[in-house]
From TrEMBL:
<dbReference type="InterPro" id="IPR000073">
    <property type="entry name" value="AB_hydrolase_1"/>
</dbReference>
<dbReference type="GO" id="GO:0006660">
    <property type="term" value="P:phosphatidylserine catabolic process"/>
</dbReference>
<dbReference type="GO" id="GO:0047372">
    <property type="term" value="F:monoacylglycerol lipase activity"/>
</dbReference>
<dbReference type="GO" id="GO:0052651">
    <property type="term" value="P:monoacylglycerol catabolic process"/>
</dbReference>
<dbReference type="InterPro" id="IPR029058">
    <property type="entry name" value="AB_hydrolase_fold"/>
</dbReference>
<keyword id="KW-0472">Membrane</keyword>
<feature type="domain" description="AB hydrolase-1">
    <location>
        <begin position="99"/>
        <end position="204"/>
    </location>
</feature>
<dbReference type="GO" id="GO:0005789">
    <property type="term" value="C:endoplasmic reticulum membrane"/>
</dbReference>
<protein>
    <recommendedName>
        <fullName>AB hydrolase-1 domain-containing protein</fullName>
    </recommendedName>
</protein>
<dbReference type="Pfam" id="PF00561">
    <property type="entry name" value="Abhydrolase_1"/>
</dbReference>
<keyword id="KW-1133">Transmembrane helix</keyword>
<feature type="transmembrane region" description="Helical">
    <location>
        <begin position="7"/>
        <end position="28"/>
    </location>
</feature>
<keyword id="KW-0812">Transmembrane</keyword>
<dbReference type="GO" id="GO:0004622">
    <property type="term" value="F:phosphatidylcholine lysophospholipase activity"/>
</dbReference>
Length: 291
């Protein structure tokens, strides 16, 4: 009798879950993006100086009715000049020649989460301008997240940065869910015969269906028109390490088949380091790796 009840309960769940997702598709979006969890709480995202020095907050209109919050953190060489400077001054610094990283974070929370802030500090100290974006629906950004929407936000910020940075190198850094946005942005640029200067994928996935459920952002395949660096911890509990390895193998195969000569590298972090899904920033050599 107990076995029959257990089987009946499992069948009910099996049947009801697809129906619930069909009737309430916003649940699927919440599972993928977790954007309503605006952690850390009680942080004023318009005041980044509470968490990050030498940082200016601004809002970028990526389409009608959608405005996304962005932090611009200066490279180390410009820290001393930054006190009480205007938004226009921050914008002008992009034309001074230092390289730029656009950081596209993973799901859940905002650009103020500690591991994101710590990574930005490292990249800034290594000499990069860093742009931290909260996609639509995340943090203080308006709108609702979607595959097309996240891509549009990333593309808009990329073009804004390029329009102000002159000949400076502009790189994309994607973490977890953000690696999908990096791929889609790069694919969009490749279709117009342009390419990002470099891609860094931290904890990338090959199929979101293997992580949560099937979803339009389901496959990441590198186009390999830009140098690629993959960072992945062996003890990643969220996106298994074998996904990063698989992506690395796909990139190497594309490199061989197309005879591109584009650099492809993967760094795996041993499980005993405890970096897991979010803490690659703890690598003491990280600034040298990306420098």
């Amino acid at each position: 009798m107990r076995m029959r009840r257990a089987v009946s309960a499992l069948l009910s769940v099996y049947v009801s879950v697809p129906v619930i997702l069909y009737l309430f598709p916003w649940i699927l979006g919440q599972l993928i993006y977790a954007h309503l969890v605006r952690f850390p709480f009680f942080v004023d995202l318009s005041q980044p100086e509470d968490l990050l020095n030498h940082t200016h907050n601004f809002y970028l209109d990526t389409e009608e009715g959608v405005s996304v919050g962005v932090w611009h953190t200066l490279p180390a060489g410009q820290w001393e000049e930054a006190a009480e400077k205007s938004a226009e001054w921050y914008q002008r610094t992009l034309g001074h020649g230092q390289p730029v990283i656009i950081y596209l974070h993973g799901n859940l929370g905002t650009r103020a989460i500690n591991h994101r802030v710590q990574l930005v500090k490292i990249l800034s100290a290594a000499g990069y301008h860093v742009f931290s974006l909260d996609y639509r629906g995340f943090g203080d950004s308006s709108g609702e997240p979607s595959e097309a929407g996240l891509t549009r936000d990333a593309v808009s910020l990329y073009h804004w940065v390029k329009s102000h940075s002159g000949v400076s190198l502009v790189c994309l850094w994607g973490h977890s869910l953000g690696t999908g946005s990096v791929h889609l942005l790069q694919a969009k640029l490749s279709s117009s015969r342009s390419a990002v200067d470099a891609l860094i994928l931290e904890a990338p996935y090959t199929r979101i269906g293997d992580v949560v459920v099937n979803h339009p952002l389901s496959k990441v395949r590198p186009t390999l028109s830009s140098p690629l660096l993959i960072l992945h911890a062996e003890d990643d509990y969220m996106v298994p390490h074998h996904m990063g390895l698989k992506l690395y193998e796909i990139a190497l195969q594309a490199q061989r088949e197309r005879h591109t000569g584009v650099p492809v590298e993967m760094i795996s972090y041993k499980a005993e380091l405890g970096y897991s899904h979010n803490d690659v920033y703890l690598d003491p050599n990280l600034s040298d790796i990306v420098g």
